[in-house]
Amino acid sequence: MKHLTILTFSLMLSLSFGCKSSMTHSASTESLKAADFNVAASDQKAMDIAEAVVQASGGAQQYRDTEYLSWNFFGSRKHIWHKPSGNVYIEAQKEPIKIKMNINSKQGEVWLNGEQQVQQDTLSKYLQKGYEWWVNDSYWVVFPFKLQDSGVTLKYVGQGQTQLGADAEILSLTFSNVGVTPDNKYLVYVDQSTNLVTQWDFYADADDEAPRFQIPWLDYQEYGSIKLSGNRGQMTISDISIQDRAQVFQ
Fold first, then answer.
1. What pTM, to 2 d.p., does this model score?
2. For residue 131, what are the CA distances in angstroms to 42, 120, 200?
3. What are 177-192's pLDDT values in tens digits?
């Protein structure tokens, strides 16, 4: 993403909402396990694999230290996320919608067809839409760092193979009263040699017998100090970029 776009967002951040970070930190800098991750119902082996995934993807502290993350979600939406503050800028690519908001407070500003909106019902509608877009779209980018998020239960399923025939350890990830779609379930495939997530199977309802879709996670690249994947087989998350504060304000 061009520096001009990042600079524009950085200027917007000068009007910061003053909210706390969007992430729940654990006591240890070596782990991203949330304080209210469901440890009691999760398997130790699954939790050990989740920690290995974070390490293989760059490490917990490196993820925390990542400040500005931007990406293009399959050509539908561009995001710029300032992780420490929770401020985001979302620009729809197929609709004349631009949203600047904080994902913690859900407060912000909305532009439709280039005009800033002031009616509260319109603001509420599109700020909620922006929040749901961010929750969904960011999950497709930083999912490997979120295996032990708030309200998550993680179970070890066993060994298996991805659709591409790679050996993997398989985890089951479910939610309890968190997120926009708490009934979802994921089967997470972790490569046995690299400890990277290489596939997820998505279940709209945890009780469904078959997944709605199976998506590969391929071609990890280093962005700053962490590894991310944008290749989802027949789809691509493009323009992934990470900057630190010095780069943003150049």
1. 0.85
2. 28, 16, 23
3. 766 667 899 999 999 9
